[in-house]
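Supplementary Methods S3. Complex input for the pantoate-bound model.
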Amino acid sequence: MRTCRGIASLRRALAACAGKQVGLVPTMGFLHEGHLSLVRACRRECDVTVVSIFVNPAQFGPSEDLRRYPRDERRDSALLRQEQVDVLFVPGENEMYPSPYRTWVDVTGLDSKLCGRSRPGHFRGVATVVLKLLHLMRPQRAYFGQKDAQQALLIRQLVRDLNLPVTLRILPIVRDSDGLALSSRNVLLSARERRAALALPRCLRRASGLVEAGETNARALRAAMAAEIAREPLLTIDYIAIVRLDDLEDAAEIAAGNTLVAAAVRVGRTRLIDNFIPGGMSC
Ligand code: PAF
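Predicted complex, serialized as structure tokens:
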């Protein structure tokens, strides 16, 4: 595995891969099985696997947890070596945002809903860094997890709007054995918070069970989900959303393949998200 810390060395590494199918897995590091599932899919489907690790300051608000965000480059690097990744890109902040930095990407409409409501500016930071990474690496395929469903939908829109020549692969959520969706932020939970956090996947399982049993009414599903979360006093609801996949507007009824059922909660200082998409999502 070749580790590149600068754009010039990344370009040299990629020049050596000319004519091959390049796949990109963008990450913020502190890797878990969810990230590794993306890396493995990329290895299966592409000739060259490039992983980026960059804790992107632009997607953290002033009151958010940039400093608390877990990091362990040595462990990440060892895991990626084991997975036989070809190129690891670990840029510094000045490399990605040389001063003065003035160019930003807004995916209007999709960026201000759900997570965007409580994290203003977050998706501008995500869209900007993802476009920069796609532009730098020109991969044929790029891999993202469904856990960040709004992020995936926004990137899908960005790719369509700017005619980017990349195929997006959105892969299923990977969960711990107790059902909690894997997230680098899970290490920030105390043992008590970790137990309480299980109400989040429970509320989604409840909604999914109701959908399977034939319930399509969004209001009824939201109420069932809220009741499940309300039983856990350590959790506060940021949002419970049942929205259309294409514009994230509220859906009155579940439409298979075009509805996102998502929730975000706070447990102590940590914010967790989870979702499911009845009928699945296509890019
Ligand atoms: O999902 C993430 O880890 C980040 O939002 C991403 C896509 C790597 C952009 O910083």
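The mean pLDDT is 97. Residues 122-137 form the longest helix (16 residues).
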